[in-house]
Amino acid sequence: MIRKLALMTVISFLAIFGSSQQPQVATEAIAVENNEIPENSAVIIRGAIVEREFVDKAGRPRGFSELYFRIAGDNYFIKFCESNVSRDELERHLDRLATSNLAGDNEIALEVEIREGLWICYSGGPIPQSRIGRYVIIHRIVASQTGN
Fold it and tell me: Can you spell out the DSSP letters for 85-148?
């Protein structure tokens, strides 16, 4: 009787507290290559930030760059208008990492969601150039083990 009561208490505890909405921790080699990162679900993952010059559909550079999150060799556009982290905040964090990292490792851990849809931030009026596909939004920058 006591054993059953203890078992039911443990099961109830796990059911209540074990299903919290904490982000999953994914490793790029396993989760991304195997398409195991669920869309619209927050995960913490390491990758590199890549800056690329924007080129329009006609092949003309437009004078600005965009940032992408490279995970397992794939670049995901970072949609800052839906993110909790601004481009400026991310760039400041990357600058701090670069000055404190003697190894030259440009990887960063981010809590992100992978989504599918329009890449632009639309606020009315004509859409300048629509691009559709998978992109990431950043929930937060995860502190590195060195305290950065």
Answer: S-HHHHHHHHHHHHHH-TT---EEEEEEEEEEEE-S---SS--SS--EEEEEEEEEEPPPTT--
Per-residue pLDDT of the chain (148 residues; tens, 9 = 90+): 554 444 444 444 444 444 445 555 455 444 555 556 666 788 999 999 999 888 877 788 778 888 999 998 899 999 999 999 999 999 999 888 877 765 555 789 999 999 998 887 766 655 566 778 899 999 999 976 544 4
Residue 141, phi then psi, degrees to nearest 5: -90, 130
CB atoms within 10 A of CB 66: 16
d(CA 137, CA 43): 11
Whether 110 and 140 have beta carbons less than 8 Å apart is answered as yes
Rounded to two decimals, the pTM is 0.68
